[in-house]
Design a protein that fits this description.
mainly alpha, 0% strand
């Protein structure tokens, strides 16, 4: 099952916490979970609807970024 469809919605954190520099293709995103710092901070108190929206954004980012 996709994590974004679960209840409660699980965190996308994979314990690889490093923010990409502004010069990287993933600028301002965590290299592990592809969230912004604002998304990471808000996650703990956010409702499931917000978390699902963040997961959708992560999926969009995954499709757009070049991981090579």
């Amino acid at each position: 099952m996709n994590p974004e469809l679960q209840t409660p919605v699980p965190s996308p954190c994979i314990s690889l916490c490093e923010m990409a520099p502004d010069t990287a293709s993933a600028k301002g995103l965590c290299r592990g979970c592809l969230r912004t710092l604002d998304e990471i901070v808000a996650w703990g108190n956010a409702p499931d609807a917000y978390k699902r929206a963040v997961w959708a954004e992560i999926r969009r980012r995954e499709a757009e970024l070049d991981f090579d």
